[in-house]
Amino acid sequence: MTVLPLRRHRPSTPARLLGGDRLVTAALAVLAVPAVAAVCAPLIAPYAPDAVDLSATLSGAGAEHLLGADQSGRDVLSRLIHGARTGLLGPLLVVVVSTVAGTLLGVAAAWLGGAFDALLSRAMDLVFSFPALLLAILLVAVSGPGLTAPVLAMSVAYAPYVGRLARSAALQEKTRPYIQAYRVQGWSGWAICLWHLVPNIAPLVLAQSVTNFGYALMDLAALSFLGFGVQPPTADWGAMVNEGAAALLQGAMLPALAPGAAIVITVVAFGIVGEALADRVARRER
Amino acid sequence: MRTSRFAAATASLALAAAACGGPHPAGPDGSVPFEITGDMPPAKGPVDAVTWSLYAEPQSLDYAYAFDYPPNTVLANVCEQLMRITPDMRLEPGLAVAVASPDPRRWVYTIRSGVRFHDGSTLTADDVVASLRRHMDPEVGSYWVSVFQNVTSIEKTGPLEVTVRLKKPDQLFNEQMGTSAGTVASAASLAERGYGTPDAGVDCTGPYAFDGWQKGQSITLRKFDGYWDRALAPKAGTIRHVFIQDPAARVNALLAGEVDGGYLLPSSGFARLRAATTGRLYFGPNTTAVNLIPTDLKGTLGDLRVRRALSMALDRPGIIKAAAAGVGTPSKAPAAIGAWGIAPEAAKGYYDRLPPLGQDLAAARKLVQEAGAAGRKIVMATSTLSPEIGVIANAVQSAGQAIGLRVELKAVAPDAYSALFADAKAREGLDLVMTTWYDSTPDPLEFYGVLQTGNFANYGGYTNPAYDALVDEANAQADPAARAATVARLQEIAVRELVWIPLYEVPHSVFVNNRITGAPTGIAQLVYPWAAALGSAG
Question: Which CATH superfamily, name and number, covers A38-48+65-285?
C-alpha cells in the first residue's frame, strides 16, 4: 500500500518566508511608517490636514512646519501623514478585490478546464489589452471623480494579473498526487480547492499581490494627480503633487516633492517585499 | 527594480536639498511691490517673425464665440470692430468713422470707406449688417447675444450707413461695439461653412490676416499690407501663437527665448520672470477683479448678515499673498477700479467713499450668531483648474469655520468649472463660487448691469427694483460723467448688499524678451490690435 501525504507541507507565513534578508527587513520597516501614520494620523500629525495659515504660504522647512507649508499655508507633513490613509486604503481595496476575484477565476479556470477555461482566459486577455488608467478615466467620466471609480477600475484591471498566475499555479497543483488522493476519497472539487489547493498556491499569489499593491498605489496616485481620483481638499499624495506642482516655479519644492518621495519610497518598498516573497516561494518550489 | 531604488534615493536627496526652498517674501498687506506700466518702449524697427505664447488653444476663431483670453488675443489683430477701445481704455471710432444717436433708441453708424478685407474685397454696410445680425441668430448661439437684448432691428440705411434700433435707451450697446459684439467680418466668408474653424479661418480687416492653424500647436498670422490704418501698420512679418498649457513650461519657454512673449502669465512665475535678464515682465492696467459669487441667495448666504460675516472673516492680504504671489490689491467693490474708463478720476472718489473690507473675526462671529446661522452649511466649489481656485476655497473654508459656519468644499472637475457660469443646473447645490471677472469696455455699467434682475450673469438671482431702475437710468444717460455718477450709486448698493463678495484686483501681465517691444501692457489687448506696434527693440 502506498501512503500519500494529505498535505505537501504547512502553508508558509510572510514572516517565515522573508526572514533573514536585511533589505527586506528594511523595506518592511519603511512600510511600517505609512501604515502607522495612516492608523494614528490624528494623534501624530502636528496640525489638522486642512488647517489653513495664509501667513505661512509656501514657507520652507522650519520648526513650525517640518516639511514646510503648501500654497494655502497647510502643513505639508500633516497632509502627508493624513494622505497615507487614502494612499494605502485605495491600493489595499484594489489588492483585496483583485486577489479574491483573480484567485477565484484562475482556480476555477484551472479546475474546470475546457471551454470554461478558454472563455475565462480570453476574457482576462481582453481586460489585459485595455489600459487600466483609461478604464479608470472612463469610469470616472460616468460616475464622477472620487476614490470609488478608480478603485473599481483598478480592481478589474489587476484581477487578470492574479488570475493568470493563480490559473498557472493551480494547473500545476492539480496534477499533484495529494489532489488525486482527495478525489479518490470522494472530496468535492469545491472543498479540495478551498481547503487544500488555494492555501498551497497562496504564497505565490500573495507575492504577486504585494507587488500589485505598489503598482496600484502608483496608479491611484497618478489618477489623483490628474484630477480623476481623490479630490481636494482631502489630503492625498497624488493630489498633493498636483497642488504642489504650481509652487515649483516659486522655488517651493517640498509641497510636491514630499508626497512624490512618499509615493516612490512606498512603491519601491512594496516592490522589494513582493520580489523577496516571490523569490522565496520559487526557491521553496525548487 | 534597480531603477526604482535609484529613483527613491534621488528623490530623498532632492527632498533634503529642497528643505530650505521657499517663495519670495511679501509685505504685511500680502502684496509685493509692483508698478503699473501703461506702455512698453516703442519698437525701433520691423522684425521678420514673432512667436507668442497662449495658455490654451482657442476652441474657435469665430468672433461670436470669442469670450475668453486666448481667442481674443488672436482675433484682436485679425478682426476689427465698429468702435475701437484703446490701450488707455478710451472708446474711439474704429470701422465706423462716425456714430450718432439721433434719438435715445437709435444708433447710426457711418462706415469707414476704402477699408479692405484680407481677401481684397471692400467693406460695405452689408458686411456690417450681416456681422451684427449674426449675434441675434439662435442657430449661431453667440456668446455676445445679451449685448443685443434691447435691439429691435439692424438695417442698412445707406451705402455706408447702418442703423440699429432699440427697445429702450442703451448707451452700453455702443460701447460694446468696441468688443467682439461689434466685430465685422466679410459677409461672404460668414456664409461659408466652418467660419472660424482651423480649416476655414476668418476674413476680416485687421493688420494681420489668418495664415494657418496647426491643430494642437499654433495659429499663424501674416502681415496684411492693405491695412487701412497707417498709424498701426504692422511691423512684424508673421505672428505665430503657440499653445503652452503648463504654467512652468510656459515660463521656461519665455525665459529660454523659445517664445518672444505672452500675455496673462501665471502668478507663480512672476518672481522668475521679474528676475529675468533675457526680457522684461510688465504689469498693465486691468479691469479684472477676483470675487466670490453667492450663487444661492435663498440659502444660507441669502441672509445679508451671513454674507457680511463671511466677508469680514476673510484674510484678503493673505489670500493675495497665497493665490496671486502678492501681485494684487485688496478690493472694496466687485468691479475693478480699472473698469471705470469713462470717468477714471471720479471713480477714485466713488471708490474712496466705500467702506473698507477689513478682517474682524469677533464681529463676524457675532453677526453669524445674530443671524442664527451658527453651524449652518455653505457649499463652495473648488477645482484643480488653477491654483488660485483651490487656495481661495481653502481660505474661505478656514474663514467660515472660524466664525461658526460649516463650509464644505465641493470638487468640480476642471472642464466643468466653466460650466458653473453658463449652466444654472451646474450650480445646483452650490452656495459660493470664485470668479475672475474682467470687463471688456471702459464702462463700469457693463459689470453692474449684470446684477439686474433676470440678467444671465446674475448667478445668485439678486433682485432689487430700485437697483433695476438705476441700471436703466444709467443706460439712458449719454453723458459719461452723469452715467458714472449713477453707476456709483449702483456700486454702493452692490457693496452694501454684498451681492458679490470682493476679494482683490490684479494687474494685467505681459512678458517680452529683449528682442522685441512696443505692445500695450493692459487688458485692452483683448480688443486692440496689440501686435501691430510690436517690433524690434534694437
Answer: MetI-like (1.10.3720.10)
